User: Fold this.
Amino acid sequence: MPAVPHRQIRAAHTDTTVTVYQAYAPHLGVPAARDNRFPPAWKRERMTWIKPSFLWMMYRCGWATKADQETVLAIEITREGFDQALREACLSHYEPGVHADRAAWQESLRRAPARVQWDPERSLRLGALPHRSLQLGLSGPASRAYADEWTVSIRDVTPLVHEVHGLLRSGAEGAEDAARALLPVETPYPSGPLEHLGA
Assistant:
């Protein structure tokens, strides 16, 4: 089996959409899933981070147990919007070889409506893996477009989160395989080279 590239976007995606994950307090997450759009209380001016990796989201929200992260949403957005954000994004940290110098990175970061972090991908038990997973931060026009233009559907997947976590905690024979079988299928996303993001 070929090694996974060190930095690679893996996601559930179709010809026109890509699924990302976020976790919110119920007062935001429940109405978002119910109405299939983010409510007015969702602050469109703040930076919002989206994650294509289900297991990285589980690591971040502690299987929906952390405060204000009890509702996990699967947000299907247009690939057109996702690709635009990637094109306009800047790495969240300076990286020699990607940026001409620190000043050039700072200028790119100042202008970019999106930023990228590559964090260790997670195993089913949420241990760090040797390859990286994308986190995409959206601010200003990108955040507003995400909420009001790119979003195709919003699903509350908290019951799935609880089911998978329950299986893992049970310790029953075959429970880990059963939990793995419930995970969303994530395959390499055809973004093309992302040299400006070090990938």
Notes: The first strand starts at residue 10 and ends at 11. The helical segments are 26-35, 54-61, 79-88, 102-111, 140-150, 158-170, 175-182. The first helix runs from residue 26 to 35.
